[in-house]
Amino acid sequence: MGALGLLGLVALAGCEAPNNTFWRFGWPEGVTKQATDMRELWTWSCIAALIVGIIVWTLIIWCIVRYRKRGDELPRQTAYNLPLEIVYTVIPFLIIAVLFFFTVVTQNKVQERTNNPDLTVAVNAFKWNWQFVYPDSPGPDGTPVNTVGNSEQIPILVLPTDRTIRFEVASADVIHSFWVPEFLFKLDVIPGNENGRNNVFDVTVNKEGAYVGRCAELCGTYHAYMNFEVRAVSGDDFDAYIQARQSGDTTAQALESIGQPGTSVTTHPFDLTTEDQRGATTVGASGGPHD
């Protein structure tokens, strides 16, 4: 009962969990507001598990010491202990129920969508690359500003910090999975699901930096090389980046205009060709064969 009380009162009472390396128990820190909620759930779940473990280990050691063999006399045998069996059944059920409740609460909070996101990004996944579209930012030719990778260039998704970003993800062929490890969140991209229904999520990035992104669903021959990069910049730098793109600059030129590297820094294309294939179709790690 002590474990259950601590589990409900301390471990999962909604208190803010400490955010240092030790208390994360191996969980990454994360760079989004949603990542904080998931980290706190993980931290308190680990604490609850440790409390239960300590109580169980203590009882085991106590039984070993208290009921160790002291002679040849057979101790009194107990066939049933109904109250104890009821306790052993009810407590695990209650612990699971509490963990399930807080897991659902956190999941609903992480997947909550705002009515008015500050930015919408359309993510188009295909074998084996990514296209990122800013539908509300028309380019010089009238089409939305977009970035697409190829076998020689990692696509860079530029995002502002401290703004609510809505991702609308879609697949042109098979199931892919949009995953940025530092977001502590991934979403399978199911072909056939309309944007605005299931393939949508919101995040708020709270830390500037460059973060690798990957496909986390086995999608074919070059799945392992379907990488991209998230470049999180300040709101002012993002606005300047979009203006540069709207004026006709490429992704690299626009990034360099705000003082950022023009190419990816967290991952790079891999040349998968062999000597026998030189001169034939080139295959790159950020995508597949050349278009």
Automatic annotation (TrEMBL):
Top EC group: translocase
Cofactor(s) required for function per UniProt: Cu cation
GO biological process: ATP synthesis coupled electron transport
Pfam family, one: COX2_TM
Membrane-related topology note: Multi-pass membrane protein
Catalytic reaction equation(s): 4 Fe(II)-[cytochrome c] + O2 + 8 H(+)(in) = 4 Fe(III)-[cytochrome c] + 2 H2O + 4 H(+)(out)
Keyword set, alphabetical order: Copper, Electron transport, Membrane, Metal-binding, Oxidoreductase, Respiratory chain, Translocase, Transmembrane, Transmembrane helix, Transport
Ranges for region Disordered: 259-291
Co-factor binding details: Binds a copper A center.
Cell location: Cell membrane; Membrane
Cytochrome oxidase subunit II transmembrane region profile domain boundaries: 19-114
InterPro entries (alphabetical): CcO_II, CcO_II-like_C, Copper_CuA, Cupredoxin, Cyt_c_oxidase_su2, Cyt_c_oxidase_su2_TM_dom, Cyt_c_oxidase_su2_TM_sf
EC number annotated for this UniProt entry: 7.1.1.9
Residue stretches spanning the membrane: 42-65, 86-105
Family: Belongs to the cytochrome c oxidase subunit 2 family.
Function: Subunits I and II form the functional core of the enzyme complex. Electrons originating in cytochrome c are transferred via heme a and Cu(A) to the binuclear center formed by heme a3 and Cu(B).
Name of the molecule in the record: Cytochrome c oxidase subunit 2
Organism (species): Petropleomorpha daqingensis
Lineage start: Bacteria, Bacillati, Actinomycetota, Actinomycetes, Geodermatophilales
